[in-house]
Specification:
Blueprint: E1 14-23, E2 29-42, E3 46-57, E4 60-62, E5 69-85, E6 90-108, E7 116-134, E8 138-154, E9 162-180, E10 183-190
Antiparallel strand pairs: 1-2, 2-3, 3-5, 4-5, 5-6, 6-7, 7-8, 8-9, 9-10
Length: about 190
């Protein structure tokens, strides 16, 4: 679960392993792996989840800088979620990602040097979540995510080395309803 509040509703241990492959028009392809372990600390009262995520790409042909270049993307993330039931209907949670690194490389084809190398890591941040349960079949939830990232860039596109700190924020809200034991519908808004 992406919303840490759901850890407060755990009734049993759970392990999730996910593999996804995404291909884009052109040459870029992404390969993602994610693993999560969740366990209740008190059944249906409080719990924790630890998730690890890895994303990598192939070296894709890219011509956005006027010369043929190879584009590649990598990301690694480990997060820890804690959730707690506040009342029979309300859950709240917090998450941190002590490990968060990503990188983008753009290397010209057949020419030494780099057009662009970007590397980012989380400096500090958190995720807050809340969930309201509608009976045993529906949920309304919201997540606020806020991180500072230290970003270092180098290569010809920057004229040398640069560094900056960026503030990333994300707000997500959604509604989900289980119509039958096999049919769940959801709507989500994200900014």
């Amino acid at each position: 679960f992406a919303n840490p509040a759901f850890a407060g509703a755990l009734t049993a241990d759970a392990i999730v392993l996910r593999q996804s492959v995404t291909s884009f028009d052109g040459d870029l392809g992404l390969d993602c792996q994610q693993g999560s372990f969740a366990m209740p600390l008190e059944k249906d009262r409080q719990g924790v989840q630890v998730s690890a995520f890895r994303l990598g790409s192939n070296d894709a042909l890219f011509g956005g800088f006027g010369v043929p270049a190879l584009l590649s993307v990598q990301e690694y993330d480990v997060s820890v979620h804690y959730g707690r039931r506040l009342s029979p209907d309300w859950l709240a949670g917090v998450a941190v990602s002590p490990v968060f690194h990503n990188a983008v490389d753009l290397v010209p084809v057949g020419v030494p040097g780099s057009l662009m190398h970007l590397a980012a890591k989380a400096d500090w941040g958190f995720r807050l979540g809340t969930v309201y349960e509608i009976g045993d079949r529906g949920w309304v939830g919201a997540v606020y995510d806020r991180y500072d990232e230290d970003v270092n860039g180098s290569g010809q596109a920057f004229g040398g080395s640069v560094s900056a700190t960026f503030h990333s924020e994300e707000i997500v809200t959604g509604v989900a309803y289980r119509f039958t034991d096999r049919l769940l519908a959801g709507v989500e808004w994200q900014q």
